[in-house]
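Supplementary Text 2. Reproducibility record for the structural model of the 547-residue chain.

All settings were left at their defaults, and a single model was retained for analysis rather than an ensemble. We include the record here because the model underlies the residue-level annotations in Supplementary Table 4.
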Amino acid sequence: MKPTDDTTTRVAEGESATEATTARPAGKPPAAKGLGVLGWLRWFWRTLTAMRTALILLFLFALGSVPGSLFPQTGVSPAAVARYFEEDPVLAEWLDRFWLFDVFQAPWFAAIYLLLFVSLVGCILPRTRVYLRELRREPPAAPRNLSRLPHSGSFETDAETDSKTEAATTVEEVAATLRRRRFRVVTGPGWVAGEKGYLREAGNLLFHTSLVGLLIAVGVGALYGYRGNVIIIEGNGFANTVAAYDRYIPGSQVSAESLEPFSFRLDDFKVDYQISGDRPGQVLDYTGRLKVNDSPTAPERDYTLKVNHPLEVNGTQTYLIDHGYAPTFTVTDGKGDVAFEGPVVCLPQNNRNFASECTIKVPDAKPEQLGLAIRFLPTAVQLQDGSWDSTFPSAINPIVQVTAFAGDLGLRTGVPQSVYLFDQERLKKMKRLVMMSDPVELGKSLDLPGGYGKVTFTGVKEWAALQIAYDPGRLPALLSSVGAVLGIVLSLLIRRRRVWVRVTEREDGGKLVQAGGLTRTESADGGFADEFADIVAALKGRSDDAR
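Retained model, structure tokens:
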């Protein structure tokens, strides 16, 4: 039997024909071998560090940030998130399952972040090694036929006029001309090679390194920074302690002692609206007047808080992010005792007219606990169908409408409840005292039936939602962003190009100077044709005039 090609090969390597044929039947293909754990790890690393993968992850990183702009974020506007749950609880529950109300804390966003970081590092390191080798490498020698290059040119000089012209007719003169144009130059017997545009790849590396720096800055901010939200009603104050926050998100390396010990009081909050014109009710300006103490022993100072003009105390910044109304009430129970007194934060239902809703939970009322659902209208008018609505966001003619319930509010069950919303299942178990009352004007009262007391509308204040944030990665992130922009500008504007020049002696004593050039990075010359023409003109000098 004629041995197979594989058997022949094995015999040639020193194995006997008998051993070769008995080891595996003739004609049977070799058994397939798997990649193994090491092979799969190598494949995964090569795929992850490929430039295509880095671009895909960068796109996913940008795409994953989009929901942070489309949906209200818990860390920025918890009131808007609560309103979302109230208007469409089913959709809000599904959005919350995918962390779309807290995108930048989502596990899937962190996964993209880490993969992008590893991918960029895996791309940068080998490309940096290649770039450093390229910097040490000299330009290649001149090709034999320069006229075949994408750009070429030549000129001749006579022996009699050669010394009288400014033409570069020697290797030294040609090299000096190219050096003045910032070419890296190498000379040989009768030829000169020049190359420039190395900053293009440097810009590319700077861009990717800056992206890594940006990711590191974000990570540093997440570890050593913190942010929190708090709603402050006019006349109330805030001290920068953990207990004072409505929502507090510390980094893993942040402790309660890390917080800057400042405090402030919101003396006044004012919103200016456009009264006439094409857009009545359009917000013109927000102004919050603060009394600030930079430390417990520091003197009090005034500060005017505005949008994009945060209060800064030793690197901790306080931003104005939202606002609304806080009408004040006095609730008297059935025994004549004041069971509740003060302002209540109302959540705007729309920003056009600032019709708002709020809740008052009165657990100490007698004979039963009271739950009041308040509808606040800053500029109230009665519509043709008899209902009431607000026509302007400013508090020109404020009224409230009250829906009252009596019964167990469930506050002592140990189950946490929202301060802005009622538990609808709990309300079903309570008896309704008042079904959306007639308007209650400022200074007026609503008597609750059955001897349950009365509700008095006593005044209107405004509240401001503030975000207090400390981010040590803010400045590095800014510098990284500047570096990324600079890097992409360099990579887009600079071209890698090479120029060669040959100087040949003619039989009559004159010189033949031939030049050729090409770009290394684009199919199009990107303007190199004009630059090459200028180089040839500089080499020629005034040779044509001399001749």
